[in-house]
Amino acid sequence: MNHLKVLDSHGNKIPASHLSSAYEGATFGRRLGTWGAYSSGPNTALFSSLSTLRARSRELTRNNPLSHGAVDSFVANLIGTSISPRWQIKDSELKEKIQELWIDSIEEMDASGLCDFYGMQSIVARALIEGGECLVRFRMRKPDDGLIVPMQLQVIEGDHLDETYSTIAPNGNEIRMGIEINKAGQRVAYWLYNEHPGENFVNTNHIERVRIPASEILHIYRPLRPGQMRGRPWMASIIVKMHEIDQCVDAELVRRKTTAMFGGFITRPPGEDEESGILGKTVEDNADMERIIALEPGTFPELPPGYGVNFSMPTDVSGNYVAWMKQQLRDIARGIGVTYEQLSGDLEGVNYSSIRAGLLEFRRLCKMIQIHTLVFQLCKPVAKRWLDTAVLCGAIEIPDYSKNRRIYNRIKWCPDGWDWVDPLKDQHAKLMAVRGGFESRAHVVAEMGHDIEIVDNEITEDLKRTDKLGLVLDSDPRKTAGSGSMQTMQTMQKIE
């Protein structure tokens, strides 16, 4: 058998010893010989792991307070009260009509009737974190159903989409992990279970897959690798560590509880056989004739003459427990994406600069997920389908909508504004940026989660009302200077 030879530029054979990897991370020596890392595709890696990762991630959220708090913190920062739309239409009257119709319609969007569209955003975000993905199905309704716009949404967990279902469809399309794709690689349908496979009710005995056209489904997840078709639970990298730490905390809790039970140990004179209970009120024997002693914290009974006491002084085996636990929680916080302070609630030693630096990076991550995942995959498609339906059913009249659909679907999505760490410092910095021309008022107002047009209209109405009532406020530059003193008559005439 001929072996492939590697030659240099002169045609000489290069020794095998010279062909070893130039990267230490690719060697198989003593330190890395047992590291079984395999280069699997983005979907093969999830094929056999997704259901287990999803189940363990949810179990941690249910029973581990740290995981539960981290998920709550992420959802609160990703969604807050809403990620709301601002239509970018020049016709202010039409824009106001669309905005008002949207506000009235979002309360009817949930097919289950439990929350409005913004509440559904929170449910989707939670499903993303715990299960890695979420499905939303468009449910078109009849005109006589009494809805303002006959369209509703159904939120579906990723469990309905069987990741083990891969085959060739009757029409010749390929089905990968429950998703049907055509020859061009485009998604054309989703094969969903008609019931949640994890439910255990009478009507779930006949679960079957149903083909749903891709036009009716929004598949929301964070693609981390090119070609990735299913979402990975966000806690996948910390599941083992979180589980082990949970067991460690339980063991430490039991150790401390057991230690507190022993106030001391009683010694009796040699040769004396004691049949009565000393540590407790009585001594009981079980079926195997084993002595059972009931313990209570700090137990100390009255002793017979001649008995002695040795006080319990257990050795503290966890002297560096707090420091060790902090480091583990920092690793976990980094793995899921929140800050250590958000995960643990520990604000010891935190100052303005340190907590602001941590929050800025966390908020940058949140903003990336908001724009690239939640807005692009959920909010934009919903708003487009909603406006299409509103025009078709006559809920709003836009004569040239079919010709200028793109123009009418230009929307700026505004997430809920984040609270400032130090309002005085942060607001002063924004004020200086606006005065220096580095930032616009509209941008600052949008960062706070408000619409600049609504804010300006409110300010205009406030000024009219104060003028009518004869009030003078520091916020009115027509009458007061920045220092709070009254403007001179000459200055007031220039402003007017």
Describe what this molecule looks like in 3D.
The protein has about 500 residues and is an alpha+beta fold. It folds into two domains: about 45-260 and about 320-415, no CATH class; about 265-310, no CATH class. It is about 40% helix and about 10% strand. The chain has helices at about 45, 50-65, 65-80, 90-105, 115-130, 240-260, 320-335, 340-345, 350-390, 405-410, 425-435, 440-445, 450-470, 490-495; strands at about 85, 135-140, 150-155, 165-170, 175, 180, 185-195, 210-215, 215-220, 265, 285, 290, 310, 410-415. The strands form five sheets. The chain has a five-stranded antiparallel beta sheet, with no helix packed on it. Strands 3-2-9 form a three-stranded antiparallel beta sheet. Strand 4 (about 165-170) and strand 5 form a beta hairpin. Helix 2 packs across helix 3 and helix 3 (about 65-80) crosses helix 5 (about 115-130). The N and C termini lie far apart (about 95 Å). Residues about 275-285 and about 290-295 have low confidence and may be disordered.
Summarize the entry for a quick read.
By secondary structure, this protein is of the alpha+beta class. It is built from 14 helices and 14 strands.
Set out the fold topology.
Layout: H1 44-47, H2 50-63, H3 65-78, E1 83-87, H4 92-105, H5 117-131, E2 133-140, E3 151-157, E4 167-168, E5 174-176, E6 179-181, E7 187-193, E8 209-213, E9 217-221, H6 239-261, E10 264-267, E11 284-285, E12 291-292, E13 308-311, H7 321-336, H8 340-344, H9 352-392, H10 405-408, E14 411-415, H11 423-435, H12 441-447, H13 452-469, H14 489-495
Antiparallel strand pairs: 1-14, 2-3, 2-9, 4-5, 5-6, 6-7, 7-8, 10-13, 11-12
Helix pairs in contact: 2-3, 3-5
